[in-house]
Design a protein that fits this description.
With 364 residues, the chain is an alpha/beta fold. It is 27% helix and 27% strand. The protein folds into two domains: 182 residues, Medium-chain alcohol dehydrogenases, catalytic domain (Quinone Oxidoreductase, Chain A, domain 1, Alpha-Beta Complex), CATH 3.90.180.10; 143 residues, 3-Layer(aba) Sandwich (Rossmann fold). The strands form four sheets. Strands 4, 6, 7, 11, 12, 19 and 20 form a seven-stranded mixed beta sheet that branches. A six-stranded parallel beta sheet has the order 15-14-13-16-17-18, sandwiched between helices. Helix 4 crosses helix 5.
């Protein structure tokens, strides 16, 4: 099959012929119909990560059709439409049994044992790393069934691909992590793909004031279309002062989708007494956050890191798909461009344009 392979760090994505194994155990073969370009994949393609040595096939926002199932796979049948998710969960540990699959103790249970089993992907007899158990930048993906969720067949593939990461993370942070309630106030720092889904979810939750904060006016204009009641350009305005003035003293929930020490500090200062800050994104190493313990205590604030929107894919992805199909969640405007498998490098370059939300591969 054809796959976009990172042969060496920083060399980009090259179209190669890659061999893919037949499904065994709980594995499912998926014919990939759409794969979103997430910045996490670009980071892995340009920086050394022990878990993803090149050559590697990346891509973790995936939608497709089940082409074959392994002998122990029971959740899907051939022809099912599915969405992939990078949350790898065993299904048996205490966290999984409690429904908190994003805290799974044994995510490696979704992978092949390199000491006993042949690799899922190979080239000329040598293993090719499969990124995050998915490897969606390819014509087909061989995936453990726990990393897949069935979706309605009438759901278009391009927006469906975004459900497993950008939507799950952004919307889930608001609905699962913070549990924003009707009438509450929200600030979202970072109006990229994940931030837009946080804005959208805050609107769905009934938040009375939703303030989007970013340094680019193009992203802020889009945030209004997703439900932001107010926008603040932090490159030209003191965001903390602006948010506190707009909300009469600060928001109850502040989401840092950027993930730097500076943006988390902003989030802390723009929350009201008893407010909460949720760190959703992580830019590079993020840095070290300095806290005033007396201020934290006296202002009764909370800081929480959220992974994958505290999401349970089998519960949440169908929920978001239903919201979209009923016209309550905007996914179409997340898909700014659709490209071919050999256009990934140009697609990532396009993401630097503030008017581009997400780029999705739809031609394989």
């Amino acid at each position: 099959m054809k796959a976009a392979v990172v042969d060496a760090l920083g060399t980009g994505f090259a179209l190669r012929d890659v061999d893919i194994a037949e499904p065994t155990g709980h594995e499912v073969m998926v014919e990939v119909k759409a794969a979103g370009l997430c910045h996490t994949d670009l980071t892995v393609a340009t920086h050394a990560f022990a878990d993803f040595p090149p050559p590697v096939v990346l891509g973790h926002e995936m939608a497709g059709v089940v082409a074959a199932v392994g002998p122990e796979a029971s959740a899907f049948t051939v022809g099912d439409h599915v969405v992939g998710c990078l949350v790898q969960w065993c299904g048996d540990c205490p966290a999984c049994l409690d429904g908190r699959v994003y805290r799974c103790d044994r995510p490696e249970a979704t992978l092949r044992d390199p000491g006993r089993e042949a690799p899922r992907l190979s080239r000329a007899g040598s293993p090719v790393t499969q990124g995050m158990g998915l490897g969606a930048f390819a014509q087909r993906a061989l995936v453990h069934e726990n990393q897949l969720t069935a979706v309605p067949r009438r759901l278009p593939f391009a927006p469906a691909a975004l459900l497993g990461c950008g939507v799950l993370t952004g919307a889930g942070s608001v609905l699962n992590g913070a549990r924003v309630g009707a009438g509450e106030t929200v600030a979202v720092i970072g109006a990229g793909g994940v931030g837009l889904n946080s804005v959208s979810a805050a609107r769905i939750a009934g938040a009375s004031r939703i303030v989007a904060v970013d340094v680019q006016d193009g992203k802020l204009r889009r945030a209004r279309a997703f439900g932001a009641t107010d926008v603040v350009n932090s490159a030209t305005t003191d965001a903390v002062t602006a948010v506190r003035e707009l909300t009469g003293g600060g928001v109850q929930h502040a989401f840092d989708v950027v993930g730097t020490a500076a943006t988390t500090d902003q989030a802390l200062r723009m929350t009201a007494l008893g407010g909460a800050v949720y760190v959703v994104g992580l830019a590079g190493s993020g840095g070290d956050l300095k806290l005033s313990l007396p201020r934290l205590l006296l202002q009764q604030k909370r800081i929480q890191g959220l992974i994958m929107g505290s999401g349970n894919p089998r519960r949440d992805i169908p929920r978001y798909a239903d919201l979209y199909l009923r016209g309550h969640m905007n996914l179409d405007d997340l898909v700014s461009r659709q490209i071919a498998l050999d256009g990934i490098d140009a697609g990532y370059a396009a993401l630097r344009d503030p008017d581009v939300a997400r780029v999705v591969i739809t031609s394989f």
